[in-house]
Amino acid sequence: MRWYSAQIILKRDLAGCAERLWEEKIFVIQGDTEEEIRSKLEGILKKEEMSYLNLEGGMVQWSLQGVPAIEELLDESIVSGTEVYSRFLMESEIKCRDEFFK
What we know:
Blueprint: E1 2-14, E2 17-31, H1 34-48, E3 50-53, E4 59-72, H2 97-100
Antiparallel strand pairs: 1-2, 1-4, 3-4
């Protein structure tokens, strides 16, 4: 079996709040075929999309916005220090550069 990393993007909507929160998550999935990986990812995604009331009684809704990348990992086994995701960023993509590199 091979290892893959799957990047997902979620959006949080909070009733009464105009500002949205976005979350990027990376999952590690093991499988033999792309179809198997996608099937396992579907199960993960069902758990990630949810609605609930927060402590103040506001409705919170997390919804999937996309799966930008599914990449096969080059290492044969996952151990401490295994790289599971990498991408190049242009300087213009780093909005808060000083905060990012602290």
